[in-house]
Structure formats: C-alpha cells, structure tokens
Description:
alpha+beta; 6-stranded antiparallel beta sheet; 4-stranded antiparallel beta sheet; 2 helices; 48% strand; globular
Amino acid sequence: MLIKNVVISVFLIFSLGACTEPPPEDTGKLRVIEVTDHEFKINGESAVTLIIGRGHVAEYSFSIRKSDLKKGTLLQSVSDSNPNVRADATFFSEYYVQSKDYDTHVSVEIVEIDPVEEVARIAVGAKLVNLKDKDFKELEIIIFELTGQNLENLLNEVKI
C-alpha cells in the first residue's frame, strides 16, 4: 500500500510539473531569432547579420555593414548587384541565394534606431533562388522590431 501511495504521489508531482511549462512559441510568425554578435566583415568593414525564422528555425539571413546602421539607410541589391548587402535562406536543407544570373533582389532599410528608447526597426525583403533546381523563395517587405539582446548585438561595436 505504501509503494502504491508513493508511485501515485510521484506521478501527481510530475503531472503538475508538466502543467506549469510555458506554452510553446508561435511557430507560424516570422521573427528575428538572433542578431549575430561575432566578428566578421563585408568588403573589409565590420558587419552584422539578422537571422529570421519561425520559432527557433532559421529561414532567412540578412547581412549589412555596421557603417550602414543609420536611420534612413536603404540598401538594395538586384541580381546580386550590391556587395554591401547579403541575403540567403535555407528551407528543408535547400539553400537559396542572390544570383547575377536570375531575377533576385534584396532590400534592407534601417527604419529607426533609437538607443534611448532601446528599439530599432529594420525592414527586410528578398527574392532568392535555389541554384540547384531554379526554385525561388520570396519574402515580402516586413518590418522587424529589435530590442533587448538583439538590439545590443546590433549596436555593439565589433573590434577586429
């Protein structure tokens, strides 16, 4: 009888613990998963990458030079024409890129950077191609708000 009560008590404790877990993240909505804080360069200048996806699954990444992080900056690349803005995407192990040979484009706009209010808003969009099967992925222009650690990573000076 004692063993039965112990088993039931343990079961109830684990059952109650399962009820208190936080709900899973919304995996349907695109969000900024991470703003990189590692050192790398684009055309010899310090750069930063915004990694965008659903839940914890990265889909798109956009990289720009830190010197372009000014309100109002608009970086565009048509058929990989601008080396100062990079974008790529991965969907189910398939890789999508900009290409000089296909109708691809990338757009990154710094809508707002406000260190006092501790917020940045960045608009991104892209049409990328999978060179293996000539399939395209397109992300319509969407504005993402950066706060907290992502904002710190965006604004941190990279010492190279």
